[in-house]
Amino acid sequence: MPSFTCMIMGTRHWLSAMLVALLPVLGAAPASAQAQLVVLELFTSQGCNSCPPADALMPEWARQPGVLPISLHVDYWDYLGWKDTLSRKGHNIRQQDYARGIGNRQIYTPQVVIDGQFQAVGSNREAIEAALAKARKQQHVPLRAERSKTTKGWQVLVPDMPNWQGEAKLLLCRFDRQHDVTIERGENHGRTLSYLNVARAWNDFGRWKGQAASYAVPDLDGTDWSRQGAVVMLQMLNGSANGPIIGAIDLKP
């Protein structure tokens, strides 16, 4: 069976002490704010028989305050006989970017990456709890969100950080809240599996270099908030690889 798990060991060398210098956004209209939000990304596949235990843990992470779990389906197990109906090519690339950033040559399922910098095997509850504890201790950029009274569009506000060094991108992930899928072939043949917060579309819509700024969030027209959701992440750039997620906000109507 070619599904496997192998722990990725790496070092953290991302966030600087400059995060203590956070200042409020000046001149912003009243906006919604959230407590620190930790983003948990599960790389999974319908064709991987090691993945269902990790998928089953996702509601547990969703119940934890301040944690947003997202399922990212990959397609590199499709050759086993079942094409993952929720996969996106970009998820393979995102996982490979994380592997480069951590300093590992391999990717696997089920893998959890937390805030872009801590990883664990997706079915290992204790390891994920430990990674979440580390992530909660990191300082985050407090993003705020507001809706235009005229266009009804979303704006995300990022505060000023004097002496900030580096660059981060504003990343929108839209997701479906749940999918139940009956697997007809492959290693999970005959099983009906439930997937939580399934990532469906991504938009890179801005760059941030420490300045106070407001960014218009794209492509949310027609969102059915009863079945769908959206999160904006502020993610550090590390050359061609993804760096840590240093801020996130769960958009809600």
Q: Superfamily at the CATH H level?
A: Glutaredoxin
Termini distance? 44 Å
CATH topology grouping: Glutaredoxin
Computed CA radius of gyration, to the nearest angstrom: 18 Å
Major β-sheet profile: 4 strands, antiparallel
Overall geometry: globular
**How confident overall, as mean pLDDT?**
87
Quickly give the structural class. alpha+beta
Q: State the helical fraction.
A: 10-25%
Looking at this protein, list some descriptive labels:
3 helices, 253 residues, alpha+beta, disordered N terminus, 4-stranded antiparallel beta sheet, Glutaredoxin, 4-stranded mixed beta sheet
Write a structural description.
This protein has 253 residues and is of the alpha+beta class. It has a single domain, classed as Glutaredoxin, CATH 3.40.30.10. Helices cover 15% and strands 36% of the residues. It contains 3 helices and 12 strands, in the order E-E-H-E-H-E-E-H-E-E-E-E-E-E-E. The strands form 3 sheets. The protein has a 4-stranded antiparallel β-sheet, with no helix packed on it. Strands 3-2-4-5 form a 4-stranded mixed β-sheet, sandwiched between helices.
Quick synopsis:
The chain is α+β, with helices and mostly antiparallel strands. Helix content is 15%, strand content 36%.
Secondary-structure map with pairings?
Layout: E1 32-33, E2 38-44, H1 52-62, E3 67-73, H2 89-102, E4 111-114, E5 118-121, H3 125-137, E6 144-147, E7 154-158, E8 168-182, E9 192-208, E10 213-216, E11 228-238, E12 241-251
Parallel strand pairs: 2-3
Antiparallel strand pairs: 1-6, 2-4, 4-5, 6-7, 7-10, 8-9, 8-11, 11-12
